[in-house]
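DATA SHEET
Item: assembly model
Revision: 1
Owner: S.N.
Input lines:
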Amino acid sequence: MVELKEISGGITAVPGFMAAGVAAGLKKANKKDVALVYSDNPASAAAVFTKNKVKAAPILVNMQNLTKGEARAVVVNSGNANACTGEQGLKDAREMVQVAAKILGITSEQVIVASTGVIGHNLPLHKVTAGIEECAGRLSDKGGTDAAEAIMTTDTYAKEYAVQVNIGQKPVVIGGMAKGSGMINPNMATMLGFLATDVNISKDLLKMALTTVADETFNMITVDGDTSTNDMVTLMATGTAGNPLIEEINADFKDFVAALKQVAMHLAKEIIRDGEGATKVVTINVKGAYTQKDAQTAALSVANSNLVKTAFFGEDANWGRIFTAVGYSGAEFNPSRVDISIESSAGKEQMLAQGAGLKFDEQKAKNILAEKEISVWIDLNAGDKDAVAWTCDFSYDYVKINADYRT
Amino acid sequence: MVELKEISGGITAVPGFMAAGVAAGLKKANKKDVALVYSDNPASAAAVFTKNKVKAAPILVNMQNLTKGEARAVVVNSGNANACTGEQGLKDAREMVQVAAKILGITSEQVIVASTGVIGHNLPLHKVTAGIEECAGRLSDKGGTDAAEAIMTTDTYAKEYAVQVNIGQKPVVIGGMAKGSGMINPNMATMLGFLATDVNISKDLLKMALTTVADETFNMITVDGDTSTNDMVTLMATGTAGNPLIEEINADFKDFVAALKQVAMHLAKEIIRDGEGATKVVTINVKGAYTQKDAQTAALSVANSNLVKTAFFGEDANWGRIFTAVGYSGAEFNPSRVDISIESSAGKEQMLAQGAGLKFDEQKAKNILAEKEISVWIDLNAGDKDAVAWTCDFSYDYVKINADYRT
């Protein structure tokens, strides 16, 4: 197990990275809504984008720009998603990139762009560009938190994290920020994650590391099962840590992936903790699946079930809903071999053994579910693959937040 | 278009069918909880069952018993789903069948069995069998409503419907009852549908008629996207109407399917109208898909989206959420060709044209969404296939109903 040290500073904990976040007038009440992140050093870059066929303009622009696998800046606005905005939306996203590139003295292909907020309205571009210019003047190696605040929508707090880890006997930093489920005027729950590191790694392996880690962290969380038009996670790597270049799947690569997963998982769980209306974080562990895909499918099916999520809100040990969600997931298993338990700091209680309900201690189950962090253990007893998904409970407030008028 | 006349009597509107529903003590407050339906005449039978891998005991018993495609009785209990109850559950379901068969003087293979209610508890079998015996003594050709009441869980009203239609110049009756999303002590939202007719039709075509119709009605409704362990729809046909035997796909078959679809759709929409916490019925129309499957996938994706459903509860013209749900559905289409409109008795308003948001009349949209019955029109402009799904909005009460303790 690789040893990690948590450090402060978020994305600007990474040497050479500066950031800023300013209020440019897209959000109300003078809240920060434009963020800029800049690397003093050239950097490789990898990204994963939403699989939604309806992709917002900034996603489409990034898909073109990032083909070289290099980036030195990230520019983000909140308050407007620049999604379903047609040709004008694409022009606006490109203009955000060009304004940032020009003022930072880098090329357009080195700028990652993102937007989050209301869908279907054109950006107030003059406000955004003024915000980018103001950010450029305020870039600071202490600016990570300002940037993390500026990418928030209805997130109730900024999400950032950084760790230090020794790789190839050199200290390497991995830092990042994320935003979760929220909307400025009720709209999409967009997930954005921006990660940076000074590790020395080839572009191919950087891409592999991000894809692997995103599949096991950001892609295994769910607040409401709706996949946004704007979701993206990016990772920039400068190589300045001076570790021997990672260009094959060796021990250094595995250490880096483990550390990156730690950062990504921390941010992903923060998104769940701050999910709309969430009062609990629930970890769904599936063991003993035939395949990795079966394990993930089963875990996400349980994590996405409204009936399971409302039961957790009600602190109801309703294992029938959990078993049912495994049943309709599409995963391969034999129902008469399945075991289900719940666990929290208050203890662990098994409720289903070999597909049949057990007489369990209702009071103990109640105590377990009264905690804020709960784990569900589902053993399919079919094979040796496992997966973990994270979700939140489903409260009145989810409906309240999402039923409000946009205006 | 085949001409239908709505008639009263539900499942007992069909000549030769009798039914009863009694309170056997499974539900509280002396509510009816055991139902029996009996056909004086031999009848063919077809059924569709839940696709959940976790199947309740009565589903497993029916899958064995119905292989001959014949049935003369349906026995149902509410208050306990007899699901995840192991070997004892199977014994209990078989015992329900045998008790009904013996008292009615028919074979076990002629009895359809169903249960709905709480998962994971063994049936109080003596209460159920006493209920079956009491039902047998009360069978009546006016008993459809009592039976429809006895299969309810948290349904707020009984659901039954019947029509008369001329087929092969003979009057044919199709009647049925259904129950929807509800739970006795919060648990699964089980859908049960029992249909009967006196049409004269071969077993193969009866099966084809039910499968086709179920796919376009019961399988296109969604309250919360969770597929129960107990879902089933059955159709019995006595042939006593005296129409020329339908044994090929001819005009008579098409007329019968059209009439059956009308009955099934009526019952399916009643399930949505009475969905947990529902305040509105929303019809999702998808047009212009490449394939039928694409159209159904897109329609169900929108119908299942929590964000779409909460927006309807909030009467918010949030087309971005609708478009997004189409986007992640997996259906094939070009986002830049999609049109979206909303419609109700207050008018129709287009909000998306060729993938870009329109400036629309917010007040008119608000008036449209203030109605109780709303239609969404999504034109993919890709091909010529279409599909319709039905859903309800998502209110505080859904969370309330489903978060309550089981006890």
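QC remark: The longest helix of chain B spans residues 251-273.
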